[in-house]
Amino acid sequence: MVRQLLPKVAQSLGADAFFNFMVNEKGDALYLHLCCNLPDQVARSIQGVHFGQLQGGAEHAAPIVAGDLQQSQNPRDALAREAGLHCYACHPLIVGGRLFGALCFASRTRDRFDPDDLDFLRLISQYAAVALDRLCAARDLRKLAAEREQAEAQVRYQRDSLERIVQGAPLAEILERLTAELEGLVDRELAASILLIDESGRYAPPIAARPVPSTWPSAESSAGPDSLAAEAVRSGPRACWSAPIVSSTGHVLGAFAVRYKEPTEPTPLEARIVEIVTRTAAIAIERKQSEQALKDSQAKLQEHAQSLEQRVAERTSSLREAVAQMEEFSYSVSHDLRAPLRAMQGYAKALMEDYSSNLDEQGRHYLHRIINSGVRMERLIQDILTYSRLSRREIYMQPVLLERLVIDIIQQYPEMQPPNAIIHWEPLLNVVGHEPSLSQAISNLLSNAVKFVADNTTPNVKLWTEQRGGLVRLWVQDNGIGVRPADQPRLFGMFERIHREKRYAGTGIGLAIVRRAMDRMGGSAGMESDGVHGSKFWIEAPGVSASSS
Q: How many helices (H) and strands (E) does the chain have?
């Protein structure tokens, strides 16, 4: 447009020389765009004008008009005089404070431009400035449209890549598509490839949409980025650059390399696309690593499950064998041990009844000891059988009315009833348990509570319950002789007797039965005592929820 405009304006002004300036790409200076009928020396001297040299600056640049140059003594006009110019006029091209350039005209025949000429030049400059503004706006719109199209292509590029990742496409296929689509998004020829770092920390063979030179790094070369660039140049390309592929935790997973046929630098568009590629590649690589780690974990879990199943089978077999031995032992205790014991007790009683008159006091004492020992042995065998049955009987859990169970137990044992003992309780919460086992445990606790008291003391026992989360704790408090703290850790063991047998009869199994019964029901048992002021025993069992009650 300027090339067509200047000759016509020069003819209208009677100018025989003209030139114009345009703003450079950086927007900080003017450069000589067109020059006609000026000596080369003058043209070279006005190749560029920085904005700082403009009168009024870039936003308020003012026209420059000079006449009678041949008589001027101003050093600034020396070049014009040497070129034989008599006058010149330069008018800036400004729209909305934006400087686009300047139109300049000179004459070797006229001493000055008259006001009409200058008005005409001002008008032409305004029209030219508006035209340039529209051309720049159209160019900017095309650029924005192109950038938007590029941005949309980049979004589609990344979206398609992420969809392939989510769909579980093979890693090599995903990375090859990334390199191929990069080559299709830019407007010049280049070649892209991705290098991954293997477990040993070396670069594996490159992954690319097209074959790469064999001189590029392989798994055996352990080449780094500097060596990568040198090998790329030797294999044909004249420029190469790479960007690291970094995981979300900051570990380098590999590198994305771009090579060109000619010496060049990456454009901002290529840099943005490569940034997208490296992020997407990192996501794909990390996903595949996670999937592989999951597969490895599943394989180990499967192996562990198989090993666990084998161990369970072995333990089940051992348990069945133990149960069989326990049943055999129980049968032996019930029959093989009881038979001679009953015979011994029978003969001792017969001897006492039929021949006690023939024995002296010492002989009768011995017979009494034999009979009492038989009774104790019978009780011991019964307790052992009870403990054994607790270990192997089937447990069926159901709601149990605790208060009714306590009443039934007390009614079965005269020693727990007045005047032999006083047992009282607060309203008791219900529990979930196996009623026969629960009855056995409470019976043993109440039996101990009324038995282990000082001489000439009436047993006084109190029962109450308390809610502890999802469990119900039943307390049994007595006024007995108590248990020293040092003896409490072994109190619930088998055959553990804290007090002398002559004073308090027993087998040492009663509390072991309590704990075993509660363990089978998913509960627990314990006690508190200072060793002086009685004891507080407790058992815990699951409480009855609102739904089950």
A: 12, 17
Domains of the chain as residue ranges with CATH:
2-141 (3.30.450.40), 164-289 (3.30.450.40), 395-542 (3.30.565.10)
Read off φ and ψ for residue 434, nearest 5 degrees: -95, 110
Q: Maximum Cα–Cα distance for the chain, whole Å?
A: 177
Q: For residue 228, with 0-12 CB atoms within 10 Å meaning exposed, 13-18 middle and 19 or more buried, which class applies?
A: buried
| Higher local confidence (pLDDT), 91 or 385 | 91
Q: Could you tell me the end-to-end alpha-carbon distance of the chain, in angstroms, rounded to an integer?
A: 97
pLDDT in tens, 486-517: 888 888 876 666 665 556 766 677 888 888 88
Beta carbons within 10 angstroms of residue 42's beta carbon: 17
> How do strand 29-36 and strand 48-50 relate by DSSP bridges?
antiparallel
Q: What does pTM read for this prediction?
A: 0.41
- Could you tell me the two tokens for 317? 């077999």
* Burial class of residue 321 (count of CB atoms within 10 Å of its CB; 0-12, 13-18, 19+): exposed
Please report, as a single letter, which amino acid is at residue 457.
T
Backbone torsions φ then ψ of 366, nearest 5 degrees? -65, -40
